[in-house]
Specification:
Blueprint lengths: L5 H13 L6 E3 L3 H8 L3 H13 L3 E4 L2 E4 L1 H6 L6 E8 L4 H8 L6 E4 L6 E6 L3 H9 L4 E8 L6
Antiparallel strand pairs: 1-3, 2-3, 4-6, 4-7, 5-6
Helix pairs in contact: 2-3
């Protein structure tokens, strides 16, 4: 990991404090390759990308395209997550955690307290994730919570 001097750390801290968390979906692809996959010319792709960028649905840069939260919402994908708390058998923890790594989750954390793990999933994937969790040996209990709205 690169050591940062005072100014870059100050910049990161300011960006963090003034920014807001949002969900994005990032694609690392060259536009030429994407145009080929879509069966259109690179020029036509640029017209469509510019339109999507101007209305705030995507951000682009050299070698990447981000679908913004607004763009995800247009697709019916909302960033309000669901949380799943898990109780895991101590004898099966290693196995269960390896299987959890294969799930389509935004985040998975071992935690201390009354439960053993916390999963953060897209609301749309909650049901699928719960079904897959039910087939993992060692998962003793799940409790799910769905967010209603973002406060900050």
């Amino acid at each position: 990991m690169e050591t940062l001097t005072r100014r870059p750390i100050q910049l990161l801290k300011t960006l963090y404090e003034k920014g807001r968390f949002s969900s994005t979906c990032t694609l690392n692809v060259k536009q030429e390759e994407l145009a080929k996959q879509l069966g259109i010319s690179r020029q036509a792709l640029n017209v469509h990308l510019r339109k999507l960028r101007n209305i705030g649905y995507i951000r682009t840069g050299r070698g990447f395209i981000d679908i913004t939260e607004k763009g995800l919402n247009a697709l019916g994908i909302f960033s309000s997550p669901a949380f799943i708390f898990l109780k895991v058998s101590p004898l099966k923890r290693i196995y269960a955690y390896e299987k959890i790594k294969e799930l389509p989750v935004q985040g998975a954390f071992r935690i201390a307290g009354d439960v053993d793990a916390l999963l953060i999933v897209e609301r749309e994937k909650l049901d699928e994730t719960l079904k897959r969790l039910s087939s993992i040996e060692g998962i003793q209990d799940t409790k799910s919570y769905v967010t209603i709205e973002t406060i900050k």
